Inverse folding.
């Protein structure tokens, strides 16, 4: 959802001498490091940047596409952080997934992410960035790369906090919203 800024941050961190691997996964992520144009303009901007910097970024970026649950679990357990420089988000599920696996998160200050951090009292697990500011992303990743990750990796996110919002809660809230919209239309 904002791979262009993420790729730019990765390039800058590599130029600063950091050694790390950014792994992107999910449907369509392999296209972001491909040579063929993609129809989505945001994804194409990221792909074009990657393509122009391919010889350099190949060392730092691995796009694995859709991955199995076991692979995903291994990625979470070996990650310094999950980076979510998204420009938009519906619910904030990637943040919740990372927290449920006790993985720190670097993310844009979007309303769904802010709601999740508040709801689950995850302030000390999330570092906010301005996704439109590559320097902000660079600084956040750099702080994770420089931190004592061994002590943090031994921490476990209190999973009971995640029970504060269930799918039943989501469904009930949707029904409330539908009723509110219905009433507005009925009264107009």
């Amino acid at each position: 959802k904002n791979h262009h800024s993420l790729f730019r941050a990765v390039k800058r961190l590599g130029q600063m001498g950091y050694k790390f691997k950014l792994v992107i996964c999910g449907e369509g992520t392999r296209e972001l490091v491909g040579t063929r144009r993609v129809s989505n303009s945001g994804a194409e901007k990221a792909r074009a940047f990657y393509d122009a910097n391919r010889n350099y970024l190949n060392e730092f970026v691995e796009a694995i596409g859709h991955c199995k649950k076991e692979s995903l679990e291994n990625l979470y357990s070996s990650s310094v952080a999950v980076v979510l420089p998204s420009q938009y988000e519906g619910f904030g599920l990637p943040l919740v997934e990372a927290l449920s696996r006790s993985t720190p998160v670097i993310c844009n200050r979007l309303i769904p992410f802010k709601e999740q951090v508040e709801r689950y009292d995850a302030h000390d697990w999330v570092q906010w960035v301005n996704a439109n500011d590559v320097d902000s992303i660079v600084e956040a990743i750099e702080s994770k790369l420089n931190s004592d990750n061994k002590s943090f990796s031994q921490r476990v996110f209190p999973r009971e906090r995640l029970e504060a919002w269930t799918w039943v809660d989501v469904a009930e809230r949707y029904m409330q919203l539908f009723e509110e919209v219905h009433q507005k239309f009925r009264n107009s």
